[in-house]
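Give me structure tokens for this 382-residue protein.
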Amino acid sequence: MENWLSLWIIQTPKIYFDPSSESGQVRYFAKDVKFTTKILEENFSTNDTHLNYNFLPDTVKSSPSSLATPVSPSTMLGRILHPRSLASTRGVQQFKNHTVTWKKEKLSDSNLYSSELNFTEDGQYEVMVDTTDLSGRKASASNFLVVDKTPPKIRLTLSNDGLANEKYFREVRKGQIEIEDANLDFSPLQVELTVKDKAGNSISIDDADHLTNLAYWTKAGNKYTYPIEFSKDGIYHISLKVKDLAGNENAPIEVGETKAAFDFVVDRKAPTGALKIGDWDRSKDGTLWTKLLDRISFGRFSNKKQVIRLQAEDNLSGVGLVEVLRTREKMSLADLQASSAFKNVTSEAKDGYWSKEISPNETFITYVHLKDMAGKSVLPKL
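Here you go.
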């Protein structure tokens, strides 16, 4: 008589996810995700297999406080390594015992059961599966992923005070830069902020370095704000690029009512001008004819023709207007500013130089009104 011994090896169900996590890190997707759960089990029980998931939309503010706070190392952005459960998070949507269809695939030594979920809305997803096979063996697993199809938004808001000629400003430009994104990644932030003088030499400003340092930004919800002030005279250029953790590049920068947001000139210094008649360029007391004098301290007589010469300069934006007024009357600054008798000779001025021939024995005072491209004025007189 022969005896036969039968040996059955019963294994615990094995659970797999596709897409799976990578080294415990959360994965970010810039597109719809087809999430597949797979269970390898010979004695699979549909009734004892439960698939649940939690969903936290990006539109829900995870922080209970809406107050703006500086970004500290503890709140700095980065990939989530071990996310806590979303179940107790404010605003989360819970889907328990979610109804799915399990498809069976026969393998050589077992059966593979799979189901699919489609995640299309931006937000955080936490998937949880627990199963008990017909032999009573249990298994459970969870996965965490983020769908983010929305590119970061950048808003650049600057004051338009003192604007002239489309891009020249005679006042300090103040404003802010705001970046909004639920899953912002500051590490690839690219900032190009340059300031140069008229000769093309670089002018140093702290903002060029501070903008790439998250510690200088203030966080409120999904918004990060950096206050900015352009006070140094110079030729400015600014551009920003950023990505989120899903790889989305920022949409075109929003500027609202801001004029000349990316390329502009701050010029708060008035142009300079020097007058000369013949060989004379100053009063008897030695005062150069480069400003509006409060008294007449000279007298010149000639029986020959003379030439009035003006040399006008501006350190940055350039001379935009040259006006001349010849009169016998001494005029106050208020009278000059209100006068409509000035003659525009801008077209006659070449590289800031203007001249006019005068007849002998004329008696007159010459006033010159200069204005640079940023709108700053000066009134030399002889």
